[in-house]
Amino acid sequence: MSQQPQLTTASGIPVSDNQNSLSAGPRGPLLLQDFHLIEKLQHFNRERIPERVVHAKGSGAYGTFTVTHDITQYTKAKLFNQIGKQTETFVRFSTVGGERGSADTERDPRGFAIRFYTEEGNWDLVGNNTPMFFIKDPIKFPDFVHTQKRCPRTNLKSATMMFDFWSKAPESLHQVTMLFSDRGTPDGYRHMDGFGSHTYSLINGKGERVYVKWHLKTQQGIKNLSAADAVRLAGQDPDYAQRDLVNAIDQGEFPRWDVKVQIATEQELDAWSARTGWNPFDLTKVWPHADFPLRAVGVLELNRNPVNYHAEVEQVAFSPANAVPGMGYSPDKMLQGRMFAYHDAQLYRVGTNHQHLPVNAPRCPFHNQQRDGAMAIHNGGDAPNYDTVNAGGHGNTGMGHGEGPLALHGAAGRYDGRGQEDDYTQAGNLFRLMTAAEKQNLFANLARPLSQVSDDIIQRQLGHFDKADAAYGAGVRAALKVLGKNVD
């Protein structure tokens, strides 16, 4: 490749670091003053009109969340305040990298986004069908997604682009292993698990915070498509998952998921991190169940199909920043980036007042001083469009989130832990959990696209497999030889 010119912002200002966001301490959170990150994400959100930049192909349905177990010691959120209580929900499933016309059965993570229409406002749990992700810093998200899209020269999907990125980003290995396993092509949306993926927090009535991971375990059982069946269905029925979901609900076969959590205090996470060397807020990692067991919370059921796909599924606008009192965030850098990027994307894609649309509007009363702009359906009438300042101080009203301050650690800077962090153990653990047949499928699924890329990329990627588990690298080498690619 030719020498790349100096990277700059759109205003021509040289970029000193395009690998690491500016954070308060090595674990974050991120700082709004990082203009390069903000500009990069804002431009990325505006690259496509009008479909979503990612998660463009999707399906959705309404349902209910029912509380089955008491977690009020951890959160004051009112949707959990009584066993048996039900909250209306809307769920959107999706593929990630493809366009709106792409096939439902492509090898791709699946989005699993849930809106809870609570009495205190909308809570959006925006996750995937995997508990981890490819990268740990949002400044690399536009770069990563570009590799999953189309080559700017050929307008074709490119295995070279994908593996060039992954082979230089060993942090991606955990998710790459999941993606090319059998779970990379789930059999529709009903037969897969869901995850909040990020670390979030819960706040109780005393203002005490614990950290939480959300899990949704399908009651229908896990089912996956073979690589051959996924390709066949992509040609015969590219809307396979959409059809399956709509038909199941129309026939009264309502899909359900058990909602569970992993919970840990900051002190417990500090001790675990000291023992393992893993950052508990790193999205490329998971919290092992042996260390943080799952606890039951409730059941999610989908029982009503939308009346109009565009008005409801296409225009639904999620954001992980939507957290009701009793719910909170964490220093997870990817979560911090998504809290900005999702809302910004909806402002661009749907409009300034997208929250006024029925699928996005809260089911509880709401009031703010936001006025005017496109689609101002609820424009405040003759109510004041400003809030006065209380010269005597605001004081504590007891309303809202009411969470205590979050301690920050370290000086503001761009922290690069690559090269010192363990990107291999958890990927190896996932590999070792697979059956012999699942491992063979993994090897074959990886070998097909790897056989299309240059030898230097193959060798870099094989090196990562070797570090995760020697049998992992050996298996992929053997599968490549079957395809006529000798990599010894």
From TrEMBL:
It comes from Pseudoduganella ginsengisoli. It catalyses: 2 H2O2 = O2 + 2 H2O. GO terms for cellular component: cytoplasm. GO terms for biological process: hydrogen peroxide catabolic process; response to hydrogen peroxide. Residues 1-23 have a biased composition (Polar residues). Belongs to the catalase family. Decomposes hydrogen peroxide into water and oxygen; serves to protect cells from the toxic effects of hydrogen peroxide. It is an enzyme of class 1 (oxidoreductase). This is Catalase. Residues 8-394 form the Catalase core domain. The keyword Hydrolase does not apply.
